[in-house]
């Protein structure tokens, strides 16, 4: 009994110690519950709900329950500290009712769907003109009218006043609507006078304005520097002098698990075909793996090949690994370095008839600034029975000898240009150039297309026949040994140029 009396005395003592605080807490709870009951009768447009107060009450209850007080001061201190921090910012409003009883809805934007502009390169096109190559939001260009302004800011010394040149940027969309999230944009900046003619240096700045696209309440303008010319570094004679190369190849984006043997054959063939005054620009979008690099490296060391790593462009969702942007960058980057520029793929082989050379053919087409090239499609699954059991030793264009002869269909063409006449380009031809274009090149130049072979890492021959005509998958094919007959010459040329380093290359 004595023990129970002591416990009761201790309990009442504790209650007595905290009687003031408990009275305050109970009074607060009573008032909050009264307010919560009262709010149920208030119209719904009132912004504070009873549920919000119940949440608040539950939090206070949790604090009281979980706090074992030791002294009156510590209890008050803990309660005050727990309730003192400011509440988190409220979520954006979703709706409210106006005085006229209209329900006003609210739209809250987060993040950004796509960038205004992503640059790949900017290059001079002459004494007073520049080209800026990049990609931009396709919806922006499809549903709005973004604008561009170019400024040239000359490098100035302290206390020196310089003039800033400005001009409207003329935009070209060369991908024919094939863009995805992003579309290709070439901005031409042509000033009214020569720029940096005194070689003092300067920089080209682009102002890209959305002009109401995206969010119509805003006309967002992004300013960014696209090109810098250091003092004394600009060689303006390149615009009037003879180009370094007669022929330059601009390759589309290489991606996927490419066959190194097919790449080996293609580069050896075309170095032989175009000759010593030629150059090949290869763009690696993920396809130049270690084995492919091995077959390109000897030609890189000889100065025939430039390999560019463009894998970072995969971050931006454009058409076909952004190949339209890539070929336009190549066009403007090497515009004054080549007399003729070719655009085709690494499963296609340019060919001119016997007794002709690429030089004689192009000399006959000198009056045209662009010409297209006829396609000869070759099937990759049907081979001649003479090669049965020996295909692993044959080069691709040596064993694939059956040509598609189906009539009445339109086939893709590839093309070549005199690049100084172009403002922008495409994959199969350019629609932005000065001068004439011709498509009448049959009998002069063509290309053999071995579709699908560049990405095939195993033996392609599936069927062997001993006939001049064959039907496969309901398509007619005809024996054509044009490329097979010159395979030996190409093999000897490769051996002469780079030795036997690639003799063990496999698919």
Automatic annotation (TrEMBL):
Its predominant location is membrane
| Keywords assigned | Glycosyltransferase, Membrane, Transferase, Transmembrane, Transmembrane helix
What PANTHER family does the database record attribute to this sequence? GALACTAN BETA-1,4-GALACTOSYLTRANSFERASE GALS2, GLYCOSYLTRANSFERASE FAMILY 92 PROTEIN
Origin, by domain of life?
Eukaryota
Q: Where is the composition biased (Low complexity)?
A: 65-77
- Write the protein's name: Glycosyltransferase family 92 protein
**Pfam families membership:** Glyco_transf_92
The Gene Ontology terms for molecular function here are: glycosyltransferase activity
**Organism annotation:** Lupinus angustifolius (Narrow-leaved blue lupine)
What subcellular compartments does it reside in? Answer: Membrane
Q: Which family does it belong to?
A: Belongs to the glycosyltransferase 92 family.
The positions making up the signal sequence are none
């Amino acid at each position: 009994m004595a023990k129970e009396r002591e416990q009761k005395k201790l309990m009442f003592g504790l209650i007595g110690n905290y009687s003031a605080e408990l009275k305050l807490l109970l009074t607060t709870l009573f008032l909050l519950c009264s307010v919560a009951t009262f709010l149920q009768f208030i119209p719904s447009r009132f912004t504070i709900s009873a549920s919000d107060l119940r949440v608040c009450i539950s939090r206070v209850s949790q604090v009281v329950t979980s706090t074992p007080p030791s002294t009156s001061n510590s209890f008050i201190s803990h309660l005050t500290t727990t309730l003192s921090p400011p509440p988190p910012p409220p979520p954006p409003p979703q709706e409210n009712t106006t005085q006229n009883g209209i329900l006003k809805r609210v739209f809250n934007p987060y993040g950004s769907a796509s960038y205004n502009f992503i640059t790949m390169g900017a290059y001079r096109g002459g004494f007073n003109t520049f080209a800026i190559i990049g990609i931009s939001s396709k919806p922006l260009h499809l549903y709005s009218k973004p604008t561009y302004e170019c400024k040239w800011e000359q490098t100035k010394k302290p206390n020196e006043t310089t003039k800033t040149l400005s001009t409207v940027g003329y935009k070209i969309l060369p991908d024919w609507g094939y863009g995805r999230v992003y579309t290709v944009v070439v901005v031409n900046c042509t000033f009214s006078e020569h720029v940096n003619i005194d070689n003092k240096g300067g920089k080209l700045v682009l102002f890209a304005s959305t002009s109401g696209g995206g969010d119509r309440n805003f006309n967002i303008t992004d300013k960014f520097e696209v090109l810098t010319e250091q003092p004394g570094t600009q060689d303006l004679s390149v615009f009037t002098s003879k180009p370094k190369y007669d022929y330059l190849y601009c390759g589309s984006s290489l991606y996927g698990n490419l066959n190194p043997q097919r790449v080996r054959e293609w580069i050896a063939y075309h170095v032989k075909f175009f000759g010593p005054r030629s150059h090949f620009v290869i763009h690696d979008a993920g396809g130049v793996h270690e084995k492919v690099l091995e077959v390109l490296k000897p030609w890189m060391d000889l100065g025939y090949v430039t390999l560019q790593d463009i894998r970072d462009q995969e971050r931006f969702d454009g058409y076909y690994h952004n190949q339209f942007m890539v070929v336009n960058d190549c066009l403007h980057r090497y515009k004054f370095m080549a007399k003729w520029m070719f655009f085709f793929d690494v499963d296609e082989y340019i060919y001119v008839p016997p007794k002709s050379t690429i030089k004689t053919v192009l000399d006959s087409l000198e009056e045209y600034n662009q010409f297209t090239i006829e396609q000869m499609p070759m099937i990759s699954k049907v081979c001649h029975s003479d090669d049965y059991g020996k295909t692993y030793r044959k080069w691709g264009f040596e064993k694939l000898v059956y040509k598609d002869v189906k009539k009445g269909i339109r086939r893709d063409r590839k093309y070549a240009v005199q690049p100084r006449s172009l403002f922008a380009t495409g994959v199969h031809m350019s629609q932005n150039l000065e001068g004439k274009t011709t498509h009448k090149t049959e009998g002069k130049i063509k290309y053999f297309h071995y579709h699908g072979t560049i990405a095939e890492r195993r033996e392609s021959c599936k069927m062997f026949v001993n006939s001049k005509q064959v039907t496969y998958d309901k398509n007619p094919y005809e024996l054509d040994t044009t490329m097979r007959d010159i395979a030996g010459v190409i093999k000897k040329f490769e051996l002469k140029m780079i030795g036997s380093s690639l003799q063990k290359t496999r698919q």
